[in-house]
Design goal:
The protein is mainly alpha-helical. It has 15 helices and two strands.
Length: 327
């Protein structure tokens, strides 16, 4: 079960946040943009963790909520609303859609639920592709931010950082609340959880709504930054796949796992792209397969196990993980 963080852990986290706040003071715009992308993926991965990691329901819906938030921001800013107001409306709209969708589709389990959420993203993409208010297949323009390249980069970096911090804090406090324990109980055995008095339907819907709010806000920041949206860009299923992969690599169901996974994979992908342009996809895929084979529960689970058993047990842990795949 989740324990409240110690003072040292909070100090370390505070130092990490301060480092991110002061990063633009001593970094070039290219580095800041890289971190902006890391924060965006971390928002998606952390949000997916509510329904996928803690509750055990494999959702492909992050792309749907990301796209909805992006289009809410685009439509409202064209109507003259303030950017930050559109983020609040986007989050509320995403949460409302998740609530209405969650009631029917959260009755499904396993692969059936995954297929249903995959269809949700495709459904909204088709709607955006055919509505006049969204610009249809031609896309929609947004008002451009006024300012130079430095101001542009830093404005969106801090906007993305603010959403990421909110997503992280929400996840931390959920995991230390009765709600978090209930979600983990559902993941381990939903029928048994219901027998102990947990309202499983209510808990799952709350988790699904939480998994929609922050991707919608991230989509709003992405939309204003891009200044132009097309349905195929913002409802891209790759957003969902990245959220799942990053969360599982770092450790699905843990608080730090999605952040760690996002940081490592984004920097690794960037390094492979710069050093091995022709084979970077092959190498990245190979590394992901090896991590899944040797670390099926993610890096944070390995770290926690090593903290209990000691670093000398690293070989035996990796050996026992690979043994699971013997036939």
């Amino acid at each position: 079960m989740f324990k409240p963080w110690s003072i040292i852990q909070w100090i370390l986290m505070g130092m990490g946040v301060f480092a991110l706040i002061f990063l633009p003071s001593f970094s070039e715009n290219d580095v800041i943009r890289t971190w902006m992308d890391i924060l965006m993926i971390a928002i998606l991965a952390t949000s997916w963790n509510f329904i996928g990691g803690l509750t055990g329901y494999p959702s492909f819906a992050p792309a749907a909520f990301f796209g909805l938030g992006a289009y809410v921001t685009a439509i409202m800013m064209n109507a003259g609303f303030n950017f930050f107001v559109t983020l609040v409306f986007g989050a509320s709209f995403g949460g409302m859609v998740a609530l209405l969708l969650g009631i029917p589709i959260l009755r499904l389990r396993g692969h059936y639920f995954a297929i249903a959420t995959f269809g949700v993203a495709e459904f909204f993409r088709e709607i955006a592709d055919n509505l006049r208010i969204t610009g249809g297949g031609d896309g929609i323009n947004l008002p451009q931010i006024i300012g130079g390249p430095d101001y542009f980069t830093r404005f969106f970096y801090f906007s993305m950082l603010g959403v990421a911090v909110m997503a992280f804090l929400a996840q931390y406090f959920v995991t230390r609340h009765r709600l978090g324990y209930g979600l983990v109980a559902i993941r381990e055995n939903e029928d048994a959880a219901a027998m102990t008095g947990i309202n499983t339907t209510k808990y799952k819907i709350i988790a699904f709504v939480l998994s929609s709010i922050f991707p919608a806000m991230g989509g709003g920041v992405y939309a204003y930054r891009a200044a132009f949206l097309e349905p195929f860009d913002v409802f891209d299923i790759l957003f969902s796949i990245k959220a799942i992969v990053m969360s599982m690599l770092g450790g699905a169901g843990t608080v730090m796992g999605p952040l760690v996974g996002s940081f490592i994979m984004e920097y690794l992908a960037d390094f492979l792209w710069s050093e091995f342009t022709e084979f970077h996809s092959v190498l990245l895929g190979l590394i992901i397969v090896l991590i899944v084979l040797f670390l099926p529960r993610g890096l944070m689970a390995l770290f926690q196990e090593l903290r209990l058993k000691g670093w000398r047990s690293l070989g035996s842990i990796l050996h026992s993980n690979i043994q699971r795949f013997r036939v």
